[in-house]
Write a structure and sequence with these properties.
The chain has about 375 residues and is of the alpha+beta class. Helix 4 crosses helix 9. Helix content is about 30%, strand content about 25%. A hairpin with a 4-residue loop joins strand 11 and strand 12. The protein has an 8-stranded mixed sheet. A 3-stranded mixed sheet has the order 7-13-16. It has a two-stranded antiparallel sheet with strand order 2-3.
Length: about 375
């Protein structure tokens, strides 16, 4: 077009340019559609698994550690529901009228016990170098997806807000993961270790059976969650650190529990390896899950765009001695439950019950409950 052209040739090229421009618009629309479809499919692919993870269903999970032994009772024991009723600690009936099934009111010493559990947990975990956080409890659906959860679908555990692109969080892992989204961190800033308090909301779709009663499986609860961002070569050691913190906390509360290396079918999409802790619940007559700790490697950080720049010596390029910055790498993310309040209450009420119907408060929690040592039946 810049050279000398016959008018007819110029007109033909102008027309060809218009056609190219129009076809390019269509191609770009098709490309965006294909990219969206590709991302949708890619997000459905789970993480790789650690070579030592047991292969199979939940029954194939391997016991990594076991602490304590079941308490022996010399009297007929009650479950936490009966204890809660007798001690006037919780009200499920009123909550069912107000909100629906699987909601509850805590009352009297149970409120103090929740606060004590959370404050004690925060104080203990902060001693390990974790930064305390409270988080938003409503997040964009895209953040939920990037963390490896499905915000919509028949069996989703996520509550979505109609008419918006937002969801209620099922764990603080989601908003904490989003703090450093689309950022490049300095290697010297790693690891970043957080202990986050939030309320959690779960649909519990498909949940049924005896374990679904009472506090064991509810739609809304309080939780303290640990979250770590670190260099890839450090994630396995931080996974071990998280497990050790969990085990130390539950040992301090005098619980009988076992730590499981969860099998492949029970990992969930983001987890490269996951350790669950199950505690003995006398009222249920079995172990129940009270926490989990997952190494998600770079599964979440790739989707969230969280990178770090290694602290390597600058490389001198060929052009006028210009220095080249070292290439960025994706961080690894890990998460672990420090305290899920309802299930901790199940354990404490059922394991510390006495023959006279009272419940002893574990010694470690008493300073956080104003010195209360025993939760006693109320005088009628």
């Amino acid at each position: 077009m810049k050279g000398k052209l016959e008018p007819s040739e110029r007109e033909r090229l102008v027309e060809e340019g218009k056609n190219l421009k129009e076809s390019l618009v269509t191609l770009e629309e098709d490309l965006m559609k294909l990219q969206d479809e590709l991302q949708h499919v890619a997000r459905s692919i789970p993480n790789m698994t650690h070579p030592d993870v047991p292969v199979g269903g939940e029954d194939s999970s391997a016991i990594r550690n076991e602490v304590g032994s079941p308490r022996e009772f010399s009297f007929p024991i009650k479950d936490h529901l009966q204890l809660g009723k007798d001690l006037d600690l919780m009200d499920f009936d009123s909550a069912a009228e107000v909100s629906g099934s699987k909601f509850f009111y805590l009352k009297n010493e149970a409120v103090l016990l929740e606060m004590a559990l959370l404050n004690w947990t925060l104080s203990e975990v902060m001693k390990k170098g974790f930064t305390p956080l409270t988080t938003p409890e409503i997040v964009r659906s895209s953040i939920v997806e990037k963390c490896g959860f499905q915000p919509r679908g028949d069996n989703t555990q996520v509550y979505s807000i109609d008419g918006t692109d937002q969801c209620l969080i099922g764990t603080a892992e989601i908003p904490v993961g989003g703090i450093h989204m689309d950022s490049i961190l300095l290697e010297s800033a790693l690891p970043l270790k957080y202990i986050a308090f939030s309320h959690c909301f779960r649909t519990e779709a498909g949940a049924a059976g005896a374990a679904a009663k009472g506090l064991y499986r509810v739609h809304q609860f309080s939780k303290a969650e640990m979250f770590v961002l670190c260099r890839p070569e450090d994630s396995e050691s931080f996974h071990n650190e998280l497990i050790q913190i969990e085990e130390d906390l539950f040992t301090s509360l005098g619980l009988h529990f076992k730590t499981l290396d969860m099998a492949t079918a029970d990992l969930g999409a983001p987890a490269y390896r996951k350790f669950d802790i199950e505690a003995w619940m006398p009222g249920l007559g079995r172990f129940g899950e009270i926490s989990s700790a997952s190494n998600c490697t770079d599964y979440q950080s790739r989707r969230l765009g969280i990178r770090f720049r290694p602290s390597e010596p600058l490389q001198t390029g060929s052009k006028k001695g210009k220095a080249n910055l070292p290439s960025t790498k994706f961080v690894h993310t890990l998460n672990a439950t420090a305290c899920a309040v309802p299930r901790m209450m199940v354990c404490l009420l059922e394991n510390y019950q006495q023959e006279d119907g009272s419940v002893v408060v574990p010694e470690t929690l008493r300073p956080f409950m104003g010195g209360i040592e025993v939760i006693k039946p109320k005088l009628r």
